[in-house]
Amino acid sequence: xxxxxxxxxxxxxxxxxxxxxxxxxxxxxxxxxxxxxxxxxxxxxxxxxxxxxxxxxxxxxxxxxxxxxxxxxxxxxxxxxxxxxxxxxxxx
Length: 92
What we know:
Strand order of the largest sheet: 1-2
Mean pLDDT: 89
Strand content: 5-15%
């Protein structure tokens, strides 16, 4: 028997699943009644590995985040893999 025991824990994110979750969220935004006429969007940059969410107001932005989190859970993507930044007001 070996005197030393070791193991490695490797946690990698499946970026294709993230892309799928973002696409499903985008489709849900287009279908939801409370988003009709809204300029709400969600974009995923594979190069930068960032997700950008834009909503008309805080309610819509939070609703998009909730939709995306639900898609992540269904696709077994850990919610801890998301890092949130402070929301910024769009100019205009």
